[in-house]
Amino acid sequence: MISATYARSLLLKKQLRGFAVQSAAVPFAVQTAGALRLNWQKIFSTLMPRTKKEILTVERPKRVTMQDIAKVAGVQKMTVSDALNGTRSVAPATRAKIKRIAAELNYIPNFAARALSTGRTGIIAILSGPMNEPYYASMVHFLENHINSSGFHLMLMRTPREVEDLVNATGDVAVDGAIAVDMVGLVKEFQSHPTIPCVSIGTFEHSFVDYVIVDLSAGVEEALKLMLASGRQRIAYLVTATHLAQKTEVRARAYLAEMEKVGQTPEIIDVQTDDLHVLEAKFKAYIDQNGCPDALLCQNDQTAMCAFRVLSDSGFQVPEDVLLVGCDGQANMRYFNPPLSTIAQPIEEMCAVAWQFLQQRMAQPDLPRQRATLPGTLVVRKSLLAASNPNPNPKQP
């Protein structure tokens, strides 16, 4: 619909186009001293809306409803609701068709209405670390696929304040459940608010929420054995946070146990940051002050890549001077020269199990605690393959 103001402006333009022919033909012009002068006061009064009613003549776009989708898809509205909300079984082909039509029509779910009618918001909170880290990005990617395919929507949370606001909210809960990815501190917030189902993914066990953990101990032990078999006498563990160096964490526990078993003194390098620039500077300062270990186990792949850069810039060669292994299973580890070893985590499977646990917990809040342990796998590449080191102390540049 065209507004009244816009219509008057078109009429005015049409009228003004002929004012040069004769002034009498122009309704908003007067002749003064033989010249033509526009009567701007009358023009402005015409252009300005005269009533509030005229301002409200522009129609807003109509919001697409489930009924609209049902009409296009040739199904009942209830079928559309079941397909989009995952409340009942719908044939896969029909569900796919309905979702495609909903996307084409730019359908936006009305979460408030859904909450009133079903008691659920259809929103799942994901507690995650920085998305610029491939590990967290991969986790969120696979979780989002599972969540969306089940008719739910994802809400990403990354700060303690967001989680505190969620679990301490009064009245209706804003989400139906939560999945925490390696967020030990934030998971503890749900202990005081058990009405929000939560599943934890990572390396830590919990007594108050369902969890899916990855057991990296076998991979760590295998990597350490390769280092020891090469004659390495100074095997260090590089971590970014103090709690990751404690025996309660699976990698640290396996590392400390193996060092004790072979009689080597543990060497934990705790840089206390996951900022790569700060990590690089701190690790460089450490080896400048203490010399360089001849083997290095890293908390994750990102730390391993940063350590590789520092070692190379400092004149140490991998694997000749320093054996190196990370932990995560990032694909880009294989593109280094030499390719970097890693302890791969079954990320896709972990996400699938976590989503299954959360769905079961939402459906049956009184279920016994659900637990799953999946193994990590050592991927051996050239950074772990070196002849026996004749010199237990790598050369110092």
UniProtKB/TrEMBL annotation:
CDD domains: HTH_LacI (cd01392), PBP1_LacI_sugar_binding-like (cd06267). The keyword Nucleotide-binding does not apply. One of its GO terms (molecular function) is transcription cis-regulatory region binding. Residues 64-118 form the HTH lacI-type domain. Gene3D superfamilies: 3.40.50.2300, lambda repressor-like DNA-binding domains. Keywords: DNA-binding, Transcription, Transcription regulation. PANTHER family: HTH-TYPE TRANSCRIPTIONAL REGULATOR GALS (PTHR30146:SF109), LACI-RELATED TRANSCRIPTIONAL REPRESSOR (PTHR30146). This is Transcriptional regulator, LacI family. The lineage of its organism: Bacteria, Pseudomonadati, Abditibacteriota, Abditibacteriia, Abditibacteriales.
